[in-house]
Design goal:
Helix content of chain B: 10-25%
Structural class of chain A: mainly alpha
Strand content of chain A: under 5%
CATH superfamily of chain A: dinb family like domain
Number of strands of chain A: 2
Number of strands of chain B: 13
Number of helices of chain B: 2
Shape of chain B: globular
Distance between the termini of chain A: 32 Å
Strand content of chain B: over 45%
Oligomer: heterodimer
Distance between the termini of chain B: 55 Å
Structural class of chain B: alpha+beta
Strand order of the largest sheet of chain A: 1-2
Radius of gyration of chain A: 16 Å
């Protein structure tokens, strides 16, 4: 798969460093995205419905809500990347994850349905970023008030997924 | 002449202090239940939520929830401040602040410190503020990162169970 070097810290929102730092520096980001999906499939594939709907503290999301949040996030970041790569000059809006999670209906969905969507979004994300030239990957745009590059968004979304995988392992299982 | 020169200096100093005072960062309240704007405590006291804010004071993340506290009963009631806690999604630990109010006594501003068991007179209502500060100290950048990613849960503890009344997020995050 295409090699995409890690962006410099000014290429993503300052708060995203906590995510980007989790991603290996080897440039094989698309391969990692491909492999991470398989890891998640294995991680959640064996869990019971009770575990998938468990909240480890009041107000926390269930694993199903976390998974749908990850899919939402990836779709939004991929959309932003597509816009920046095509030269979008307008600032793109942010989104409130708590609102999205509350309205996702994740807990009423089957795991098959969630993972099917997850896989489709992941394939779409890899296909999109594979299509970008080096020039497109270095283009800038404004989303949610932060200036970032296309490759900065890619590392952000990949690191965000790793962050949640770590949380699932440490808090839920 | 020297005394007269002090006047504009003091004026500038006052202006600097007044304009450099930090504004709180407005929080957006996200309801967990249908009507989280009003919470009735087991003893009948009613909390009407007004607004909430974050701030960074003494290098700590501060969180405040401003309410109207109402006692419609014919007898006085006690609000137990310890009944309410906050917890963040990043598991930042918080310590509850005392509740202070101020009033003018002649030309002097007096600060009153209230007990955590706060008495509310019969058939009365008034402003009440819950506030907390983080146990950890944060740099400005760390504080901004918290605002960008963190969610704070406002929780009522009743009868050994915890009920999340609402969530607080930075209003500009959206």
């Amino acid at each position: 798969m295409k090699l995409i070097p890690k962006p410099s810290p000014d290429e993503y929102a300052p708060y995203a460093a906590m995510y980007v730092d989790l991603v290996p520096d080897d440039g094989h980001i698309l391969q990692h995205l491909n492999d991470n999906f398989k890891d998640i499939q294995q991680l959640v594939g064996t869990l019971s419905e009770t575990q998938l709907l468990h909240r480890y503290a009041p107000g926390k999301w269930t694993i199903k809500e976390v998974l749908v949040h990850m899919v939402d996030d990836e779709r939004i970041y991929a959309y932003r990347a597509m816009c920046f790569a095509r030269g979008e000059q307008q600032a793109l809006p942010g989104f409130e994850q708590e609102d999205y999670a509350a309205n996702s209906g994740a807990n009423e969905r089957s795991m098959e349905s969630i993972m099917e969507e997850y896989e489709a979004v992941r394939r779409s994300t890899i296909a999109l970023f594979s299509s970008f030239t080096d020039e497109a990957l270095a283009r800038w745009g404004n989303a949610n008030g932060y200036m970032c590059t296309v490759r900065g968004l890619l590392y952000h979304l990949a690191g965000h997924e790793l962050h949640h995988i770590n949380l699932i392992r440490s808090r839920y299982l | 002449m020297k005394v007269l020169g002090l006047v504009p200096l003091l004026g500038l100093y006052y202006l600097f202090c007044a304009t450099s005072a930090r504004h709180p960062d407005e929080a957006r309240i996200i309801c967990v239940s249908n009507n989280c704007q009003t919470y009735v405590m087991p003893n009948g006291l009613r909390l009407n939520l007004k607004y909430a804010a974050f701030n960074r004071i003494r290098r700590q993340l501060g969180c405040a929830v401003f309410c109207d506290l109402q006692n419609s009963a014919d007898s006085s009631k006690v609000l137990d401040r310890n009944m309410f806690i906050v917890r963040s999604s990043s598991d930042t630990g918080f310590t509850t602040n005392l509740f202070y109010t101020s009033h003018m006594a002649g030309l002097l501003l007096k600060i009153d410190q209230h007990p955590n068991q706060y008495p509310v007179a019969a058939n009365s209502h008034g402003d009440y503020v819950f506030s907390w500060h983080s146990k950890l100290q944060l740099s400005e950048k760390e504080y901004r990162n918290h605002l960008a990613t963190d969610t704070v849960l406002f929780i009522a503890k009743t009868g050994g169970t915890e009920q999340v009344l609402f969530k607080l997020v930075w209003a500009k995050r959206k």
